[in-house]
Design a protein that fits this description.
Layout lengths: L10 H14 L12 H8 L3 H13 L3 E2 L7 E2 L3 H23 L6 H21 L1
Antiparallel strand pairs: 1-2
Helix pairs in contact: 1-3, 1-4, 2-3
Length: about 130
């Protein structure tokens, strides 16, 4: 895993978000193993306690499962995996809407701009 950390959010939350992004993009799937806490801490050059906290939060959310003396794995629960993508999308849309709220756009104007940009981004991604 390779994460570019920001100074705004706690590191453990950024680790969780990165795992969720990998799931949403299909790079991690149900049953896939993830690095041990020590391996991840070493590779990201962060405190092992930070990784421990991230894993504990993901276990409590049932996003990962850890059995004694076995590697942690991504849940196979399809409902949880589907909710990850929806959660990330909602967070992004909410942040976007908060940022543009002062512009006081009408819904029609907003949707028109979103459609234009969406089409533009799709074309760019198809060219890659």
């Amino acid at each position: 895993m390779n994460i570019s950390f920001n100074t705004r959010d706690p590191v453990y939350l950024q680790v969780i978000r990165h795992v969720k992004l990998l799931i949403a993009r299909g790079e991690l799937e149900g049953g896939d193993t993830i690095p041990s806490r020590r391996e991840l801490a070493t590779s990201l050059k962060i405190n092992p306690n930070t990784v421990q906290r991230a894993y504990k939060e993901m276990e409590e959310a049932q996003l990962i499962h850890t059995e004694r003396n076995k590697p942690s794995t991504i849940t196979s629960e399809q409902e949880i995996l589907s909710n990850v993508r929806r959660e990330l999308l909602r967070e992004s849309v909410h942040q976007f809407l908060e940022e543009i709220a002062p512009l006081q756009l009408s819904m029609e104007e907003l949707m028109s701009l979103v459609e234009e940009e969406y089409s533009s981004v799709r074309r760019e991604n198809e060219d890659d």
